[in-house]
Design brief:
This protein is α+β, with helices and mostly antiparallel strands. It folds into three domains: 2-73 and 149-224 and 315-377, FAD/NAD(P)-binding domain (3-Layer(bba) Sandwich); 98-148 and 383-471, no CATH class; 233-312, no CATH class. It contains 14 helices and 21 strands. The strands form five sheets. Strands 5-4-14-15-16-13-17 form a seven-stranded mixed beta sheet. A hairpin with a 7-residue loop joins β4 (80-84) and β5 (92-96). The longest helix has 31 residues, at 362-392. The two termini are 45 Å apart. The structure holds flavin-adenine dinucleotide (FAD). The site of flavin-adenine dinucleotide (FAD) has 36 residues, from α1, β2, β13 and α8.
Length: 494
Amino acid sequence: MNIVIVGGGTAGWLTAALIAAKHQGEIKERKLTLTLIESRHTPTLGVGEGTWPSMKATLKTIGLSETAFLLYCNASFKQGSTFINWVKGNDRYHHPFSPPDRSPGQQNHSQPTEVTAQCASQTDLIRHHIAPKLLAAGDYEGTMNYGYHLDADKFVSLLKVHCTSKLGVKHQYRNITTAQKDKAGNITHVVSENGEAFSGDLFIDCSGVRALLLQGQFNIDTVNVSHVLPNNCALACRLPYKTHDAPIHSSTRATATPHGWIWDIALQHRRGIGHVFSTDFASKDKVENQLFDYVRQDPHLDESHFETREIRFTPGYREQFWHKNCVAVGMAAGFIEPLEATALALVEQSALFISAHLTTEPAIVKSIAHRFNRLMTHYWHEIIDFLKLHYTLSMRDDSDYWRSVSSCDNLPQTLKEKLLLWQALPASVYDTEMKTPLFSHNSFHYVLTGARQYQVANGNDICDPPINNHLVRALPTQQHYFQQLRLANNKKAT
Ligand SMILES: Cc1cc2nc3c(=O)[nH]c(=O)nc-3n(C[C@H](O)[C@H](O)[C@H](O)COP(=O)(O)OP(=O)(O)OC[C@H]3O[C@@H](n4cnc5c(N)ncnc54)[C@H](O)[C@@H]3O)c2cc1C
């Protein structure tokens, strides 16, 4: 079987790596070939720097050492997300990756606290920039669950080298312009601008938002969801730390502003920061000023490097993801917005599914495509419900943007039903009929309880709960962890 992947961004290389790692036997016996073709003319997105804990399993499966990955990608540990000013404008709650491990009764505060601290001790680590593991712990093993913050460009280079040198993936730089199909409508070849044809049995479209194959060859459009989640633009920048001892945050910070929200991702050597907004509500200049204010007020950032890049997108997902012998993964399949960093997690899920369903039998491929389309459509609906929940729990009234995005007018029916149930019951495993939901019910629980305490509180002031967690003393800060990791690595090298 010959698989051709078009596109060498994070989606293309992650998909190639997972399929190749799971089918090493067939690759070595030459029963399976995997060829990734990417264009030199179209750069990769260069964002997508927050991952879920699922990335640990992915990196382990594809055979990368965690230490090598952390050092090469200047990566840090991500233990969840922190939402700042989302409810009333002076509030903060967390969505940690580890499940709740203490009862709310263990702390007794009349004021709002950083709420998930009440039920998840991981939030103590987040608040104090503590690493989720000891330096002596093995690769991918942590005291707490974690994903990563990583340098997207470096991650792509690392995957490329690993796939081509260790996993037997073939790599070509070509600009693909068209495809040839057989009578049944299946793609037989993709063709480059100089007329070279690459044949395959399965074509994976990882060509980014334009979806060169799924849209370009089969006219499969996106379902636009901007009436529910209107953000369609981001201004992104990368800023070095001012000093070597600046703290390295261990959660993605998402700070709401009158125009949208700002992501803040801390790597070992710099922060990746960007403002997500809707062009229907704010101009680029307004948003850029807001972003600069954010950067300027942070004593650890070197604002002299402030320079933004504009990234436009249409929030939505494909009507179908798998059609004939062509399947879209990554931005080609859809993108809604960066909140909760769902995109790479979905790439991992898609690649695992494809890898478990490799066949060239057309009748079977048709059933596989149906199954994939059902599963992915369900996942996109889950994502929409979860993202919309963050907005709909907001009580911000300081701009047209917030009045519109928090309004209940355009709630998906599924979310409406859940919100009704959650008035009486906590989020639970029964909230989804799926055996393998994308989000655990704990995620819904953290956001619901996190936002709700501010909804009911009279005052807005956040009360920092006292630290009652031996782990804060036992585990190193992220800053210390990576300093020691680099020192140990330098010693090894000399
Ligand atoms: C503002 C923003 C923030 C984000 N933050 C996160 C996050 O924190 N976490 C997360 O999980 N995701 C995030 N994402 C999504 C994430 O960036 C993408 O899912 C990820 O980068 C994968 O992109 P891709 O590989 O699908 O597309 P791209 O990076 O666009 O790659 C497309 C590839 O296709 C190739 N190509 C295009 N045309 C041709 C052609 N004609 N011939 C050959 N090759 C071609 C290009 O050369 C390139 O290699 C974010 C996205 C945005 C917009």
